[in-house]
Amino acid sequence: MKQFNIALIPGDGIGSEVVAEGVKVLKAIEKADSNIAFSFTEFPWGCEYYLKYGKMMDEDGIDQLKNYDAIYLGAVGYPGVPDHISLRDLLIKIRKEFDQYVNLRPVTLLNPTLTPLKSKAERDIDFLVIRENSEGEYAGAGDWLYKGKPEEVVLQTGVFSRKGTERIIRYAYEEARKLKKTLTSVSKGNALNYSMVFWDEVFEEIGKEYPDVKTYSYLVDAASLYFVAEPERFEIVVTSNLFGDILTDIGAAITGGMGLATGANINPEKEFPSMFEPVHGSAPDIAGEGKANPIAAIWSVSQMLDFFGEEAWGKAILSTIRELLMDTKALTPDMGGKGSTKDVGDIFIELLFA
Amino acid sequence: MKQFNIALIPGDGIGSEVVAEGVKVLKAIEKADSNIAFSFTEFPWGCEYYLKYGKMMDEDGIDQLKNYDAIYLGAVGYPGVPDHISLRDLLIKIRKEFDQYVNLRPVTLLNPTLTPLKSKAERDIDFLVIRENSEGEYAGAGDWLYKGKPEEVVLQTGVFSRKGTERIIRYAYEEARKLKKTLTSVSKGNALNYSMVFWDEVFEEIGKEYPDVKTYSYLVDAASLYFVAEPERFEIVVTSNLFGDILTDIGAAITGGMGLATGANINPEKEFPSMFEPVHGSAPDIAGEGKANPIAAIWSVSQMLDFFGEEAWGKAILSTIRELLMDTKALTPDMGGKGSTKDVGDIFIELLFA
Ligand SMILES: CC(C)[C@H](C(=O)O)[C@@H](O)C(=O)O
Ligand SMILES: CC(C)[C@H](C(=O)O)[C@@H](O)C(=O)O
């Protein structure tokens, strides 16, 4: 019997509503599979916590989380707390402190009606973005000089280490080799004359160890265009933290929106817990109304189970999502349906075991 | 009689082919309008020049250009010269040295068949991106430490000055006021904790002087999604150098591709020449074959004439492009036609005076 201990951080807004559905799915699986058991421990961190206690998580929060097998996070951010505090002190902090340097974001069209693109079928949009998740543009380094004066100048420094750049690129090559897929690096060497020139060098260098992997190298602007114009070009994409952020939202746009976008923040060495989260935000405008779309959060559970080595369940969840998407009426309003968050979770579980 | 002196930098690859068509259009206008005269001076700068002389332009190149009314540029970049040299030493250099701090990039659907998006009409995709064009992420500041060692680390610093940030944001507010349009700022304050927090502050601050302008503020990832999912949200967008680069390529994607994307690099004070260019690259794969699409380059001429105060001609060109696009057969192969670069230029001129 395998026991997985999961830390829940529902966070803000619709976070708790969608996480509840993911947990429901995990509990249903536990009930059906006598070989798996889950424990759940909830942490009340987020913007409400911040407004009460002046901090997004406990001082020893990272310590409190470090022995869990996984973190399942809902959403972070709420009006009243500046975003650069709420996000950098919770979500981004966990990614960094736990060296979750791989962010896996599938761009997979689950149903042809979901794409806003003309004449694209499921096979045309089916790739994986591997986003650097620990450093780069998100290093948080910078300075703010002469505040309020005419000569005021603000610096934001991207930090690209050999270690950080090599390990994400190597991870991507390994995946490409394992899955026999092409690998596309996305960078911007023609304008970012230090960081991205370095990135390109490392991509080429490490490529020498993988002569079996067919590679492409795109500028981020061109890649953004092709995500829309010719998504069929891509199989596995590896890119920096910021570019990954932007590209995966384009990925979400072409596959049906943020209600379906998931991300796994992985520490491949399993030295620290990995974190699974829907990519969407806390959606203050609909929070508490029970109409948040839980599908991304459920897809996150699929990624979590894959990560646990329970790929059969991971796959089952994904194919059940495909099934679920065939019946628009059953879905939440953002998908054109009339279902509530809970309804969607219930129907999902029914279908999973049907 | 108004005399405009234009510096031509055809540059690399298809650059000279498309610039030739733009010049043809200008000459035809000169012939038809006895109030306007153009002079053209060609500069042979680019990658070929670099391979011969070890530099992308003459040492005193900026000096040579500084008295022209406008620069008309084709494309820069060619295999054999690293992109960060070819672009930073010519295109980006001119933008900076001539303080062309405003980059105007229309995202306008000229014909509903051109968009890859389902059910979007011309009125749904019709906005202007105002991109900061002189500093920010493109400052070129950085460092490369411990080269080749395990502790190697590469820094890329975005530089956001009060002056640089204020002037682009103010320019955008002025445009929004003049045109009675909404203004959307795109930034990324939740992750880029110095530069983009500053950007957001300046956007809000200056907004106080424009209570008549309705504003929105989007994260760059969300904006990228909405460019695809709901482009009708946007009227005028103001954003940083890098984000503008990425967003306008998404803009190109949703309006028919790079063959139709134009950009005006403006020095609003007219202290220095402004520069007009198709946004596409040098396309080495088709260079010399006479099948490059000249429409973006012709649209650049329209932007140039607007800038010269010859808006009637600017408008006439744009509506002629609309007309031209109605007959696919007449267009170049990238648009599904059989025309050559020259054919398209010829037909364009016929239509312009029809
Ligand atoms: C919320 C924000 C800090 C985060 C990011 O930029 O990484 C989000 O957009 C994401 O993609 O996970
Ligand atoms: C060629 C490149 C340096 C340039 C840029 O990044 O600005 C181009 O992509 C553009 O958009 O004009």
What is the CATH superfamily label of the largest domain in chain A?
Isopropylmalate Dehydrogenase
User: Which regions of chain A have little confidence, pLDDT < 50, spanning 5+ residues?
Assistant: none
Largest sheet of chain A: 10 strands, mixed
Major β-sheet strand ordering of chain A: 2-1-3-12-11-4-5-10-8-9
> Which two chains form the greatest contact, residue counts included?
A-B, 67 and 66 residues
Strand tally of chain A is 12
Radius of gyration of chain A equals 20 Å
Average predicted confidence as pLDDT of chain A: 97
CA-based shape of chain A: globular
Structural class of chain A: alpha/beta
CATH topology of the largest domain in chain A: Isopropylmalate Dehydrogenase
Distance from first to last alpha carbon of chain A: 24 Å
Number of DSSP helices of chain A?
A: 11
Approximate helicity band of chain A: 25-40%
Q: What's the oligomerization state?
A: homodimer
Query: Into how many domains do the coordinates of chain A divide?
Result: 2
CATH class of the largest domain in chain A: Alpha Beta
Ligands bound, unique: 3-isopropylmalic acid
Pattern of helices and strands of chain A: EHEHHEHEEEEHEHEHEHEEHHH
The fraction of residues in strands of chain A falls at 15-25%
GO molecular function (chains A, B): D-malate dehydrogenase (decarboxylating) (NAD+) activity; tartrate decarboxylase activity; tartrate dehydrogenase activity
Organism (chains A, B): Virgibacillus alimentarius
EC number (chains A, B): 1.1.1.83
Cofactor (chains A, B): Mn(2+); Mg(2+)
